[in-house]
Specification:
Blueprint (H helix, E strand, L loop, with lengths): L6 E14 L5 H10 L4 E15 L4 E5 L6 H9 L6 E6 L3 E5 L11 H11 L4 H15 L14 H13 L5 E5 L7 H16 L3 E5 L3 H7 L2 E6 L2 E7 H11 L3 H7 L5
Parallel strand pairs: 3-7, 3-8, 5-6, 6-7
Antiparallel strand pairs: 1-2, 1-4, 8-9
Helix pairs in contact: 3-4, 4-5
Length: about 260
Amino acid sequence: MTPEPLIAIRDLKKRYTVLHNRPHSFKDAVVRKLTRREVERETFWALKGVDLTVNPGETVGIVGPNGSGKSTMLGVIAGILRPTAGEVRVRGRISVLIEAGIGFHEDLTGLENIYLSGALLGMSRREMAARVDRIVDFADLHGFADTPVRMLSSGMYMRLGFSVAVHLDPDILLLDEVLAVGDEEFHHKCRQRLREFHQGGGAIVFVSHRMAEVQWLCQRTLWLEHGVVKQEGPTSEVVPAYVEAHQLAETTRELNEPVE
């Protein structure tokens, strides 16, 4: 019997409205009102009819140049962004980890943020207490767990974010460029934990510009260009095609180097 998908997206469209020449001061706004000058509006479609299905135990990569709609896809799946049109069905608990921001409250300590992250997913304090030591151990933050996270280095911050995300028993992991931070020892721990996660039936959607990581982690890859699916299929076919199309010479060399 075919398992029910954890993520099912049909004909997803996302539109943004960009405002040009908006007033920069109260005086400017008054002048515009008196002269009846309208703010110019431009419609921008970040996603233009994208389909995606992710099953339990499957890892899917999303690749494409900047502005192709990759992060918008993650935002819609996570429920942070509302689609303009289309159908988005997500089943199960989601953990989201993006390089630009993890969602920690910077004035709270690492421990306080751990408990807060669990509470936001509906987990009890007792459930989180059973995970705290494992989270701190994985992130190697002994001696810093009681420090406000704004005082942590960027590496510590990302290690803590990754550790929290993978230890909250999610069904779905949404990852955006998170394996680009940290030393090789931590990279190895991350890869091992991700392997265990999807072997246990979890689904991963991974956005990255590092094609070697996508090739190692993902069974299937979606290639976006200007919000449209350029190619979708086995990673072993999509990534080399993407690398060749964009003439990523350095990445081509990386693809020939095995990821441990």
